[in-house]
Backbone:
């Protein structure tokens, strides 16, 4: 994290030296993105806070932890497929969940299915690609996300 | 007058604030515990999230997206695949943001396989996202997910091409 803060600061300084106008344009864009995401971020942080209060650490370990197995992975895949959370919010949330005992496999399955599978956006996807292709792509991505998570579980 | 959009965006945040303030003043235990969680997470986030977004903004103005788009469609083989993945990586965003671009790729003659690889790459990869993934889950996690998701969505592209057949079309949606 410290390396990232350092890298960000250095990049911004280099960018500023190279081109002042471009840099201020970029900073403005970044700030705007942050402000746009802030309400979503606050809402998700609050819901995670409530979730972690309601569900004791033991239960999290048991159902979503390293030993949770099939049930934890399926829960993560289903929740990830249905939700529409931007990555910029999902990663902070995933970081919190890992620190509270959720396994890397479960988090990886959740994030990958969140990104690749879109049940809510499926009607829109069908308009572009047709029913057959859209459903197949989502089905393959669903299993793909589970495979990605299981593979990560082998190493972490 | 209060901005309507702002009111809508912050509706839930506003409700939570009332709940928290209520809990604090009444000493409502569960509310206090939720607040303790929340304030810890919030402080962790607020110290570096703004900086990361500034970095993303800087990245955004320096990446020559148009120059990459020129190459799309040229060659449907491995080189075409390389360009669609590169294009996807510099455009972060939710999956549905990729659909209109997929239509453009289709019009420009990208292969079916590469169109689906683009969808996978767009949703999974993204240089701005990487800063978040590395920051919150670590370099090793990022690297493993990068490799395995790349393998998975390339494979999905290959399967999709076989599955949908030659008369597959991407429709324009307005």
Residues:
């Amino acid at each position: 994290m410290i390396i990232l803060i350092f890298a960000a600061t250095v990049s911004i300084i280099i960018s500023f030296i190279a081109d002042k106008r471009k840099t201020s344009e970029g900073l403005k864009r970044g700030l705007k993105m942050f402000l746009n995401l802030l309400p979503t971020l606050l809402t998700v942080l609050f819901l995670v806070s409530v979730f972690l209060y309601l569900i004791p650490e033991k239960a999290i370990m048991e159902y979503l932890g390293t030993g949770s197995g099939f049930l934890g992975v399926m829960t993560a895949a289903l929740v990830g497929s249905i939700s529409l959370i931007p990555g910029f919010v999902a990663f902070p949330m995933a970081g919190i969940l890992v620190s509270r005992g959720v396994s890397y496999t479960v988090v990886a399955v959740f994030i990958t299915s969140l990104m690749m599978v879109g049940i809510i956006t499926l009607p829109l996807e069908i308009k572009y690609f047709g029913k057959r292709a859209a459903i197949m792509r989502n089905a393959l991505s669903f299993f793909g996300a589970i495979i990605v998570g299981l593979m990560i579980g082998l190493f972490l | 007058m209060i901005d309507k959009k702002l009111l809508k965006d912050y509706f839930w945040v506003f409700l939570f604030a009332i709940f928290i303030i209520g809990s604090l003043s009444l000493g409502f235990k569960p509310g206090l515990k939720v607040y303790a969680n929340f304030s810890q997470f919030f402080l962790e986030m607020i110290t570096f999230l703004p900086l990361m977004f500034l970095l993303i903004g800087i990245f955004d103005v320096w990446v020559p997206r148009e120059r990459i788009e020129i190459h799309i469609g040229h060659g449907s083989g491995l080189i075409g695949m390389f360009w669609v993945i590169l294009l996807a990586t510099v455009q972060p965003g939710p999956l549905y943001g990729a659909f209109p671009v997929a239509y453009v790729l289709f019009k420009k003659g990208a292969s079916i396989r590469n169109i689906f690889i683009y969808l996978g790459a767009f949703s999974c990869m993204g240089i701005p996202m990487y800063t978040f993934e590395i920051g919150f889950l670590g370099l090793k996690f990022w690297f493993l997910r990068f490799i395995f998701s790349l393998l998975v969505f390339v494979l999905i592209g290959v399967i999709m091409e076989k599955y949908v057949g030659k008369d597959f079309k991407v429709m324009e949606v307005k």
About this structure: DSSP finds nine helices and no strands in chain B.
